[in-house]
């Protein structure tokens, strides 16, 4: 049995690496049971006990190894779990990235579709523009041909008239006045044209006067005269149109200068209004400071002076000379809703009342006490109250007037700023429109240039294709000739030669 147990322990040691934790635990329990069985057998004999001790030592070593393997297996299991979690997180990140890539791919596909649609639209527009350019080129060529024909006819007529009419004359008096008035407004080329026409007309007139009325040259001269009159009228119309255009340009320049001056005036007005507002604020602050100083200085001295005035009996009563301010209604100023709030106005009014009481306490007339000596103390207090209430009402009115003035200034400043912003916006809009027009003009120029280049290249390509086809045909003909020569040579070589 001991040999079987030893072999079992050896087999356990050999299969430790391939077993799991549960199997190792079962093996450990089996070994423990075997170890418990060995205890009674050890009591039987000393030799068997020694062998049992050795086997127990071996089993203990095996158990220690099993414990170590269990610990290592647990650590490896935890590491595997952590690795799996990390792999799961990486896979989740990769899935998110793949989703983003799919979304971006879809967006790029949509963008490519839109780009392809735009490309197709642009191709269609290019085809349309090319067709339009072809039509315009045809029209231009037709007009150029007509102009060349007309120029040739006019040059021939002018040469014939110069040969026949070689006398220098001037225009009529009315025509001279008109052309002298328009001479400064017309360019030098048109002036030269007018001078040549005047010379032609004068020579034709003298020549017609010198001829007889019934001759063929006279009829020819009349035709020349009528043609020259029509030409003269057309030239006058052109000169008038040029002068009108120049006048319109000058008017537009003057309007532009007026707008610039108005903007400058508005900016100066805004600056002046801002300065006035700052000045009014400084004045209000100064008034508040003076009021506070007067409150501190004349707080206790006013009531002592009033008591002395009421107690003094030597001076005569002068109640009739006191100026009493009206009490009750105070003129309300039209303060708009966009200005200061009612809370600020109430605060200003309270400050005005406090300052006015102590400011006007010093200047109280001494005659009030003398005139009211015979009356009761209640009458005295009423007179004092009326006097101070009138002063307070006056100060409140002044404060409200200053507030309304500041509000009006603020509103005018706001309106001026709005006008400035509107003018700047209009200016920016005009600049943007000019830029857009320039950009469109440049694009049209580029398209026209490209279309012209394309037409020239196409014409060159057609010429090259024609030359290449001709050369290929020549080479084919040459090859055919060589083939016929070869066939003839081969037929001649195959026939026998008889001597």
From TrEMBL:
One of its GO terms (cellular component) is membrane. Residues 369-443 form the Protein phosphatase 1 regulatory subunit 21 C-terminal domain. Pfam families: PPP1R21_C. Keywords: Coiled coil. Signal peptide: none annotated. Residues 81-153, 235-297, 378-440, 465-492 form a coiled coil. InterPro entries: PPP1R21, PPP1R21_C. It comes from the Eukaryota. This is 2820_t:CDS:1. It comes from Diversispora eburnea. The lineage of its organism: Eukaryota, Fungi, Fungi incertae sedis, Mucoromycota, Glomeromycotina.
């Amino acid at each position: 049995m001991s040999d079987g147990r030893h072999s079992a322990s050896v087999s356990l040691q050999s299969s430790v690496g391939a077993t799991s934790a549960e199997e190792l635990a079962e093996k450990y329990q089996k070994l423990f049971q075997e170890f418990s069985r060995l205890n009674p057998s050890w009591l039987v004999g000393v030799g068997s006990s020694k062998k049992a001790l050795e086997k127990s030592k071996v089993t203990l070593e095996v158990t220690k190894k099993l414990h170590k393997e269990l610990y290592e297996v647990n650590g490896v299991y935890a590491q595997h779990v952590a690795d799996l979690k990390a792999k799961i997180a990486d896979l989740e990140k990769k899935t998110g990235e793949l989703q983003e890539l799919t979304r971006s791919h879809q967006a790029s596909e949509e963008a490519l579709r839109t780009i392809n649609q735009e490309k197709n639209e642009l191709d269609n527009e290019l085809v349309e523009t090319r067709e339009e350019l072809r039509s315009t080129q045809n029209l231009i060529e037709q007009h150029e041909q007509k102009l060349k024909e007309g120029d040739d006819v006019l040059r021939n007529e002018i040469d014939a008239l110069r040969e026949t009419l070689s006398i220098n004359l001037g225009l009529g008096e009315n025509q001279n006045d008109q052309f002298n008035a328009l001479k400064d407004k017309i360019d030098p080329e048109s002036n030269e044209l007018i001078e040549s026409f005047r010379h032609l007309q004068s020579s034709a007139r003298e020549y017609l006067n010198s001829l007889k009325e019934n001759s063929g040259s006279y009829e020819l001269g009349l035709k020349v005269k009528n043609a020259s009159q029509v030409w003269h009228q057309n030239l006058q119309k052109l000169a008038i149109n040029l002068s009108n255009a120049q006048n319109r340009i000058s008017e537009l320049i003057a309007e532009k200068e007026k707008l610039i001056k108005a903007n400058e005036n508005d900016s100066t007005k805004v600056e002046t209004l801002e300065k006035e507002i700052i000045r009014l604020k400084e004045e209000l602050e100064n008034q508040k400071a003076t009021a506070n100083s007067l409150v501190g200085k004349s707080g206790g001295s006013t009531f002592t002076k009033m008591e002395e005035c009421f107690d003094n009996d030597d001076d005569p009563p002068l109640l009739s000379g006191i100026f009493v301010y009206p009490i009750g209604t105070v003129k309300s100023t039209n303060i708009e809703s966009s200005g200061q709030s009612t809370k600020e106005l109430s605060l200003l009014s309270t400050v005005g009342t406090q300052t006015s009481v102590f400011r006007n306490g010093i200047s109280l007339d001494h005659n009030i006490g003398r005139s009211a000596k015979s009356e009761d103390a209640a009458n005295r207090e009423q007179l004092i109250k009326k006097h101070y209430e009138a002063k307070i009402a006056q100060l409140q009115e002044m404060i409200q007037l200053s507030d309304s003035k500041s509000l009006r200034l603020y509103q005018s400043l706001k309106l001026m700023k709005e006008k400035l912003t509107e003018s700047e916006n209009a200016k920016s809009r005009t600049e943007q429109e000019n830029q857009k027009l320039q950009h469109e003009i440049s694009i049209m120029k580029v398209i026209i240039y490209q279309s012209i280049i394309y037409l020239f290249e196409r014409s060159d390509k057609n010429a090259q294709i024609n030359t290449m086809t001709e050369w290929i045909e020549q080479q084919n003909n040459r090859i055919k000739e060589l083939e016929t020569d070869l066939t003839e040579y081969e037929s001649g070589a195959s026939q026998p030669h008889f001597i």
